[in-house]
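In this section we walk through a basic example: taking a raw amino acid sequence and producing a predicted 3D structure, encoded as discrete structure tokens. The instruction is simple. Fold the sequence below.
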Amino acid sequence: MSSFSKKRKQENMKTLIIDTSSASASAAIFESNQLLGEVTVHTALTHSQKLMPVVDAVLKQTELSINEIDAYAVCEGPGSFTGVRIGLAAVKGFALPSDKPIYTYSSMMLLASGVKAYPHHIIAVIDAKRSDVYYGIYHWEDEKLITIEENVDGFEALIERLNDVKGYEAAILIGDATQNYPEIADQWRGVLADQSLSIPRSGNLNLASILEKNADNAFTAKANYMRKSQAERDR
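The resulting token sequence is shown next.
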């Protein structure tokens, strides 16, 4: 498909976005790059209990049916292993009957997308336990969020490395790791984001960046946990 025809096809495309990678469950619907509605909840219920009510709520909010959704975007991880699996399974179930496309994105990109139009680097850090973090480094370019690097590392080692990189003095650090390891976050020489920005919201996703990727389908979409689960590592 040419870039022109692909762009025309996406002009009125309605995309349902789902994130279940953290304790929150979030769903949003976009038409092209315009947000139509979003529902995000943070409760003690499991994702298997709260995801479908959240999806139903955003469909009602936008007065759409699931059959009117043209494409899906789902968080591939890293984060809650169970949560990521539930989100992927739900999206695959929605997409399979009509073979609709599925786009995936990382939990770090979702967080970074919430720091709109920031003129310097954005560093998203998610607690991977034992003072490790999943991290992503991004910057905005022509209203799209560009991925520089995504990986897992010790939080302190990451901070030490980036503190020595020229040009990162104004970079902003965002994510729950800054709250869970404040003694390490305090070593950061750049900007610390407000804690409210550490709550992942599907409506913040920079969809334009995601739709440039090749789409998956219900058979090829998969998780990216970035490392084995704790149970697997302890075997």
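Looking at the output, two observations stand out. The radius of gyration is 18 Å. Confidence is low (pLDDT under 50) at residues 1-6. In the next section we compare this with other chains.
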